[in-house]
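hey can u check if this looks right to u? its 133 residues, i copy pasted from the old doc so theres a chance i mangled smth
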Amino acid sequence: MTQPNSGVTSQVVNAHACPVREVLDRVAGKWSVQILVAASRGPIRFTELERGIEGISRRMLTLTLRNLERDGLVTRTVYPTVPPRVEYELTPVALELHETLQRLTDWAGHHRHYIAQSRAVYDAEHQPELLDA
């Protein structure tokens, strides 16, 4: 027997989820995670980030850093030298996020064999379907 509709519409759910989804999309993005990890050990320069994050373009690094700064996760400090020296550092909120990312990474490392084994079993059971797809 099904439960009666509780009056919760998809619009209500989406209205509450939208801000959370927006934040998760930003902080869980491929480049954001790598920047947060790279900057977790202290202030870091743009060129260090660029060299340390494989595959990121200068433009994508610039855009991602601006978005992280806008979100209050990264601070940008410009030193009055010639040429100007710019450093990026995680805010306390981003350091807290980094701890969460580290726990997620630890979980993934701990369970990677289980997941690989589960994938192999699934693939073996569904091989004809996978070949037809």
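The chain has a mean pLDDT of 87.
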